[in-house]
Specification:
One of its GO terms (cellular component) is cytosol. GO terms for molecular function: ribonucleoside-diphosphate reductase activity, thioredoxin disulfide as acceptor. This protein has 264 residues and is an alpha+beta fold.
Length: 264
């Protein structure tokens, strides 16, 4: 196409194992599979013309460390007694649809069994998720949400549900969740005014001590339910995006067998 151009980009792979700070043992095979999103999802345009994204070149930069023989020997001796353990924050995403005209949403068994340490919920147009050039799939509007609650075994967590009123600009608890849900006491690049204009993201810290530290918390089993209500009937079908982080462990034995404490 006449108006085509080349664009260069660089970034980190947002994968669970790459977010922990321990070096990987040698002689461990690793395969990385990346699935491209469709152009209709990742591109924005005011017309309905068909576009195509072509990858000209891609490189993966991996840091390698040469350790001293004494350190390698120490690792080998330690692996005779126990496995190498890697603490990861495993990410699980789920999507639910709320039909047009609905005033509420309730979903039981969002997670059944082990509970996540953090939960993030947001809403986006279903058509944007499916892909449409004129819609931004990362435009998280509030859709006049006036109630959002997370329940563990029937009890609200981490505190009572949020009650909001976007028409009267009463949504400070929702905005504050961006700080409390991530245990941040410094500014972020989303202002209170911008929050209601496409950045309505609701975060919940579900750890027992509410500190979101680097330590591991005791495993909590239960049934997680999400409830939401809207001040007005939805004008179109909306998708509920649920992003959860679980504390898990990946182990590597001396024979380089990889073990994990999660099923999926």
């Amino acid at each position: 196409m006449a108006n085509s151009r080349t664009l260069d980009m660089i970034g980190q792979l947002h994968c669970d194992i790459f977010q922990q700070n321990r070096l990987m043992l040698n002689l461990v095979d690793m395969k990385i599979k990346m699935i491209r999103s469709k152009p209709i999802f990742c591109l924005l345009s005011t017309n309905n013309s068909e576009y195509n994204v072509e990858l000209k070149h891609a490189s993966l930069f991996v840091r390698k460390v040469k350790v001293r023989p004494g350190v390698s020997l120490g690792h080998a001796k330690a692996l005779e007694k126990t496995s190498a353990k890697y603490h990861i924050d495993r990410v699980v995403c789920k999507t639910y649809s709320v039909p047009k005209g609905s005033l509420s949403f309730m979903q039981d068994n969002v997670f059944l069994g082990s509970m996540p340490k953090r939960l993030i919920i947001t809403f986006v147009k279903n058509a944007a998720i499916n892909g449409q050039y004129s819609l931004n799939p990362f435009n998280f509007k509030h859709h006049k949400l006036n109630f959002l609650g997370i329940y563990l075994d029937g009890q609200p967590v981490p505190c009572k549900p949020m009650e909001l009123n976007y028409e009267s600009e009463n949504y400070i608890r929702a905005y504050h969740s961006l700080f409390s849900g991530f245990n941040r006491d410094k500014g972020i690049y989303i202002s209170r005014e911008e929050f209601s204009k496409g950045y309505a993201i609701y975060s919940f810290d579900l750890t027992p001590d509410l500190c979101d530290g680097s330590h591991f918390n005791l495993l909590h089993q239960g049934n997680l339910r999400v409830e939401a209500k809207f001040a007005r009937a939805l004008e179109e079908t909306v998708s509920v995006l649920v992003y959860a982080e679980f504390q898990n462990i990946i182990e590597i034995t001396k024979s380089r067998h990889v073990l994990c404490d999660f099923a999926n």
